[in-house]
């Protein structure tokens, strides 16, 4: 099948793509269909997908169980609003997510990760107002972090990645500190009394460059927050649902946050859905006779029924299929393929955790040319600048994963030549 020029040419003149300088960005690849771990291009070729559509399609594309759940829900009831109404899938999903993350807690649904983080920040601010009558309006977050693209979430992103210079004067000023300097963080929280919460991507900072840190760091953050009286928010939008090898990074690290945000792989890449989970203690500050203590937030599609149905089906798959074993096998294969690259002078660092493998190059290179070579080789890999990473679906076969790692290794070899 060949491209119908009317939709592609006519449409591309009006489509504004994410994170792209439209004038110079290479033409996007037209995808006709997806299948397992493959993107079927309009021109007929298939590419092995190393990204899983921004890390969402963890069961592979078109998993029959997820498609069936979406179909069934669409037939019955595409959606009803959660204002004054409720439906089974949202209620069931809330109970399951709370049990898995913060038992006894409450789950607030939104439709994107950025909004889930906004809601977490709002909950943190209102928690202090409701529980102590305190105005705490600032957050601490970490360099290299990414929490979304809305204004509040940009303010807690890495200052460069979050384009703080471009939006100077518009973004609220937060404290974005070094994840290695925990003494500095302790001093900061001791000094500044208007800190609502500390916000971190646990174990892996994803979009900021696939940077990993140890569970010890998170245990230390928990200690500092308890000692200094700040809430701890884990943004598990990247790490949640198996990516680090455990269902959640919080489980893997053995650290319990006060608020957790979920998104991305929540529906296995089938529908947009995100969630903010508050612990029982945090929620208790809102549960009151005073209407002014209610959480004032309400996305139109909060608890989108098709999304919740698919998310429930995705959790069923995690229970019934050996996803976490598959992640462990992927971790071993990624480590075996990438660790030897440390010897290359073009490689600055290799990071593997769960179903995430990253090779950080030592120097800038022509990213567009590398992307084009990947496509030429039949793989879809989208480097984050000098960090070439793989975050495949957990169901990827060893042979497919081998083709992805070989493409990355060859690129590193080419750059050290
Ligand atoms: C992707 C991401 C977000 C933002 O989610 P969107 O759905 O793109 O708004 C927030 N935090 C983390 C850790 C993410 O990876």
Number of helices, counting only DSSP H or I runs of 4 residues or more: 14
Small molecules bound in the structure, each named once: pyridoxal-5'-phosphate
With strands numbered from the N-terminus, the spatial order across the biggest sheet is 4-12-11-10-7-5-6
Multimerization status: single chain
The helix fraction, in percent, is 25-40%
Low-pLDDT runs: none
Structure class? alpha/beta
CA-based gyration radius: 22 Å
Secondary-structure element string: HEEEHHHEHEHEHEEEHEHEEHHHEEHEEH
**% residues in beta strands:** 15-25%
How far from one another are the termini?
39 Å
- Largest sheet: number of strands, sense, barrel closure: 7 strands, mixed
How many individual β-strands?
16
Mean pLDDT over all positions = 96
Note the overall shape.
Answer: globular
Description:
There is one protein chain. With 417 residues, the chain is an alpha/beta fold. Helix 12 packs parallel to helix 14 (398-416). A 7-stranded mixed β-sheet has the order 4-12-11-10-7-5-6, with helices on both faces. A 4-stranded mixed β-sheet has the order 1-2-3-15. It has a 3-stranded antiparallel β-sheet with strand order 13-14-16, with helices on one face. It contains 14 helices and 16 strands. Helices cover 38% and strands 17% of the residues. The two termini are 39 Å apart. The model has no long low-confidence stretch (mean pLDDT 96). It is globular. It binds pyridoxal-5'-phosphate. Pyridoxal-5'-phosphate (PLP) binds next to helix 5.
